[in-house]
């Protein structure tokens, strides 16, 4: 069983930055892959970054290149999402997810554990 606790959300003006944290505990094998998803109002949950916690291989979809970056600190059992140059469209609830294997895409069904989410609001 894996427990995930997100933190770091908040309100920021366009162009600002935030770093989200996801503290993980429980079965290490079941969180070999960790990811961040965003769910904006009226939209489906969308993957924004994922990382293999074993070898550090990270992937962000091209639409987030240069703005979002995922990283892991295995000593702290924590995954981070650094978000720069935030836009109003980045507003939403950000969820941390974990699974035993990184899927080829960002199918939510590929992740077996989820956090409660942290809200990010980008506005003036």
Q: What would you note in describing this structure?
A:
The chain is mainly β and 124 residues long. The chain is 0% helix and 49% strand. Strands 2, 4, 5, 6, 9, 10 and 11 form a seven-stranded mixed beta sheet that branches. It is globular.
First and last CA, distance: 40 Å
How many distinct beta strands? 11
Q: How helical, in percent, are the residues? A: under 10%
Low-confidence stretches: none
Gross morphology is globular
Average pLDDT rating: 96
Query: Biggest sheet: strands, sense, closure?
Result: 7 strands, mixed
Class by SSE composition = mainly beta
Gyration radius, rounded: 13 Å
Give the oligomeric state. Answer: single chain
Strand proportion, as a percent range, falls in over 45%
Question: Helix segment count?
Answer: 0
H/E element sequence? EEEEEEEEEEE
Descriptive keywords:
124 residues; mainly beta; four-stranded antiparallel sheet
Short description:
With 124 residues, the protein is an all-beta fold.
